[in-house]
Amino acid sequence: MLPLRRAALLSAVPLLVVAGGLALPGGGPAPVLAAGTFDAEMFQLINQDRAGNGVAPLAWNASLSGIGESTPYRGCGYTIAGRAEDMGERDYFSHQILDCGSEDVFTVMQSNGIDYQNAGENIGWSGGITDPVQAAIYQNTLYMNSSPHRANILDSAYDQVGVGSWDTAPGQTWSGGGGAPVADVVISAVEFIQSGSSEAAEVPAIATFWQPAASLGAAPVGTPHAASWGVGDTDVFWRGNDGGLWHEWYSNGWQGPQELSPPGTMASDPYPVSWGPGNLEVFWRGTDGNLWQVDYINGWQGPADLGFGPLDSDPHPVSWGVGNVDVFWKGSDGGLWHAYYANGWHGPQSLGNQIPLATDPHPVSWGPGNIDVFWADASGDLVHQYFADGWSSPVVLGDGPLASAPYPVSVGPGQIEVFWKGTDGGLWEAWFSNGWQGPVGRGGSLASDPVPVRTAPGTLDVFWNDTSDGLSLASSGPGGLSLQSLGDGPFSGQPSAMSWANGNADVFWAGTDGSLWHAFHP
Description:
Number of strands: 36
Shape: globular
Structural class: mainly beta
Helix content: 10-25%
C-alpha cells in the first residue's frame, strides 16, 4: 500500500569528535561546544543545509546532545551511557539498545522528560579520518546524498537537535560495525525533535546509512538466500560448485563456510525460512526432482528427501506462525502445488491448474493462518490465490504484462505489496489494502528481478541489480517509494535480501569474481 509513512532507521558514517562555539538560531545564547569539535561542526553543517534549502534552522538542545552522547540511562535494569558512548563501549551499532529488549532512543527521550510531537535519530560510524572537522564534513555529505537522511535533516517540522559522539582512543579499535576491527573510529548520534506535546507523537522517523559491500569469500552458484531467526542472527545459504548446500552465518562475526548436504544433491538454489527463535528450515529441488530439506533446532538435521515431486520450479517456503511451514512449487502439470508442516509433513497437494504457472510461485503471509501466493500466467498477467479458512480459486488480477516473477511482501496485517520487472525494464507495483490498487510504475532500469523485504511495520525496501548502477534500492517513505543507487556490485545474478530487526536489511549476491558479496544497513 502506498503512500507509506516510513519509520526509517537513521544510521550514518560519522567520524571524529567536533564542536564549535555556535550561536543558537534566532539570536539565542550559544551552545557550550568546544570550537573545532565534531559535534559543533555537524550542528553548523545541518543548519547550513537547512538554510540552503529554505528551511528554518534548528535550535541546540543540550538534553538531546546528552542523550546522544553520555547521559546515563537505567531503564535496562542496569546503567548504560548515552547512545554514542554505549555503542562504542559495548562494541555494537544499532538503534535498538543492546540487551535491553526493544528499547531505543525514543524510550530514553521519554524517560528524560523530552516533550516532542515527532522525533528522529541518525546514528553513524566510520574510521580513518583523524581531523574532526573533515570527519563531520564527510559524514554530512553522506547524509545529504542519502534521500532518507536528507529528508530528516531538511524536515521543516523539526525545531531542535542535539549531537553526541564517541571516538576511539589512540591504539584502540572498534568492531561493532560487523567487520574487522577499525581504528580512528567515531560513532555519532544525532537526535531531532519537533517540540510540543508528546501526546500527539507520531512514529519517530529513522533512516540508515549503508555499510560498504564486502566479500565473504565462498563461491556460490546461482543466487545466495538468507534468513534470520532472531535479532543479530543472519544465515546465508547457497549451492556450491560441487552441487552441495553451503552455509555461512553471522553471530558476533562471520563464521563458516560449512557444507550441510552431500555434493550433487541440489538442482536449484536453496530457500531458507524461520518459524521462530532458534529454528531454520532450508528447501531445494533435488537432482531427483523431489523436494529436499535440512532444518536446524539445537543442531542441523538432514538432509532429507521429503518425497514430494516432481518439482517443475524452485520451491518457495513461507511461515505464518511457530511450528508452521508451507512450501509451494510449480508441478509437472503446470499447476500450483503445496506441502506443509504442522506436527508432521502433509501433502503434496495440488491447488489446481486452472491458470497454469509461467513463473515460480511466490508466497507471503501477513498474519496467523493467512497465506497469499502470486505468479504470472502465460499472458504475463499477475495471478493471485490465497488461504483464509480454506483455499480460494486463483484470480487473474490483470496487472501486466510482467517481465519477471512477482515478488510479494507484507508490511502489516491485511497489507500486501507485489513488485515485478515490467516489460519497459522498470520497477512496477500493485498493492492490497481494503482492495487491490495499481499497477504503478516506479522507475529504475532493472537487470534482475526486484527483491522486496519488510524492514519495519509499515516500511519496506526493494533491491535489484540496475543495468548501469549496480545494487539499487527503492525505500518506502511519506511520499511513496524513493529510488537510490547503492553502487555495489558487479553482479553475476540477482540479489536476495532479509531483515532481522526493525530498520535492518542485509543484501547478498554472487559477484563476477565468483565470491559471495554482502551489503547491509544496521
